[in-house]
Predict the 3D structure of the following.
Amino acid sequence: MKLTTIEQVQKRVGISPAPRDLKVIDYVDEHALRWLSHCSFAFIALGEGANIRVSAAGGAKGFVSAEGSKALSISLDALDNSSLVQSGISFGALFMVSGMEETLRVNGKVSSVANGKACFEVQECYLHCAKSFKRSDFWMPPSIGQSEADVADFLQQAQFLVLASINASGEADVSPKGDPAGFMIQEHDGYICFADRPGNRRIDSFHNILEQPSVCLLVMVPGVAQVLEVVGTADLCVDEALLDQFEVQGKKPNLITRIKPTSMTMLSSEAISNSVLWPAKERPVDLVPADIFKAHIQRSKESSIQAKIARAAVSLPGAMEKGLQFDYKKNMY
């Protein structure tokens, strides 16, 4: 059975207990700037109309520059596929810091491409939860180096992927997914499939797929400087036999995203090599996720009663830290 409405999706995955955009700000604040100063790797989705692709980007720590509070810039040489970057199109970026399991998500528009540099207008900025990195043991790969696997073997070994999608208004998004090897991604009846696990329930990707099914994946085996790019069209499935195939720790996922691929390509990633993702570095002491979540919630423009109640709750000493610890411990699957 396929899901065709957002109401059907919410019935399966639930509705966020807080307003959807509660932790979203529309500029790069001091917390985000500090995050970017430590960042050495990113995934950047780029799209327009029905077209969406995603590229890895990486380099030395701090390879992303802030141009004031509303703009970022990156050298085109930092992207594996710089040809995707075009002025005026939408982007969604996921910025990673070695050793950190949370990620910084920034969405907006490409404002210009000139002199070997891409400039990005910031429209959304927020911290993303750590579950996909925890589920995949992203920073603790069993080995480090190139892979000699073919596509089928690479899929079997995969523990992490990013999903790039785009809505009917042309707004791009990139979302991380993580699971143990063998449960991250599977082939069934000509589809590439992966599970939805408990998360923040913003369900941006599901909104986008229902409006516009074109998607692009970059699939990773942590420790390996190669990625598998999957381009195709997606749907959302709740077939019980398929859900059974993704059961982990006695829990089935809420739904499965299926992709009918039009292309599947193994790529060597200079961005992974240049950023030296592994072995992971120690977490920077000046990046405290609970403090960043709290600051962004307090600064969000969301003005509903629920938002005011949530802001009051997170202002209590230790409340955000305890909430994150509980969620990461009890709601992984």
Summary: The first helix runs from residue 6 to 13. Residues 2 and 38 are 41 Å apart (CA to CA).
